[in-house]
Fold this protein.
Amino acid sequence: MNLHTVITKATLEKTVCNVVETAPVFDIHTHLYDAAFGDLLLWGVDELLTYHYLVAEVMRAEVIGYDEFWKMSKTQQADLIWQTLFIERSPVSEACRGVVTCLNQLGFDVKKRDLAAVRKELKRWTPQRYINRVLEVSRVERVVMTNNPFDPLERPVWLKDFVRDERFAAALRIDELLMAWDANAPRLREMGYKVGSDINDKTVSEVRRFLDEWTHRVQPLYLAVSLTPDFAFPEDSKRSQLIERCILPHCREYGIPFALMIGVSRQVNPALRLAGDGLVRPSSLDPIVHLCANHPENKFLVTMLSRENQHALCVTARKFPNLHIFGCWWFLNDPSLIEEMTRMRLELLGLSVTPQHSDCRVLDQLIYKWDHFRRILARVLTDKYRDLLDAGWKLTRGEIERDVHLLLGGEFERFLAR
Ligand code: HDL
Ligand code: ZN
């Protein structure tokens, strides 16, 4: 079959599945790191098993105190999670299923359920070789990291400079600026930026210098922040002043989007640590409408955490070409919700959307997060193309490849270049 092959109803499903399965992915939001960041890049079966999604799940299944769990070594935590969620119960949750998918696609015989054998084999791998292996198996060709100048482990790596792996693009994460200004202004001063507590002209100038210096250093594709459900803009707050006077002009100057990830309520259960963030209510679309309508020369990437927000977000994206929505974020990254959201998005936005990102924290997860999504995308696209064929439309393999490229990162790249 070549690109010009005209698709029939008989060849449609097989062709779509083949194209979606083999198409390379540009994963636009992860917590992965270039190998140059050393131990910040998490990989291997013990990291897979102690992913914070599984920590939350094991604490529901096993009667164990938080303190007792956190006193365990990572290997002991992984053993407990494996025994509790995989041996004593079938691993049917999406996060558990993901571990099985990863191990299976990495070539382990999961029927043996032999964790020791997996650990033994992985000892033979180096991070660099494992990166190449996982990117090859997952067919992910490029990822965007989450880079935080305030992170005490990450910051020194950027300051000593290093040769970048171009497969690991950057995003500048500014939660400390926008979500905790009063706590972090002193840290900015320690870094040499003469900011005050109030967002006055001097502070604005110094925050812009901070953004300039880290943008030149990191070369981010976008600036990003995750926001709580009460996020409002404009409002009488330091956050609002920083967005208006620093973030938006900076993004305009560099021609990069401002990514807003809206809806998380941080640490609803602090004892779960990284797993302790929650979702307690939907958010308002008002700030997004205001930003897009009043700053048409800015570009906005938005993902929202609440299922209830998804339809209004799609409708809002229809109103503003400078708004690009992406991903089935965090608690939405589950097959039933991914399918509902992807169908809605294609029906309302066509191909002008990036329907998924992985949010991976562990390198191996690229394998499952994308394998599971590709299966859903193939199903949805097959239905959409079948509707077109039923209406007499002609469709070629090349056109399917073109469309899938757009959905798996191509449209994001077009949006960056707008
Ligand atoms: O704020 C974020 O970028 C979220 O994705 C959090 O990192 C969250 O802990 C997560 O990993 N979600 O998948
Ligand atoms: Zn994330």
In short: Strands lie at 25-27, 140-144, 168-173, 220-227, 258-262, 300-304, 323-325. DSSP finds 18 helices and seven strands in the chain.
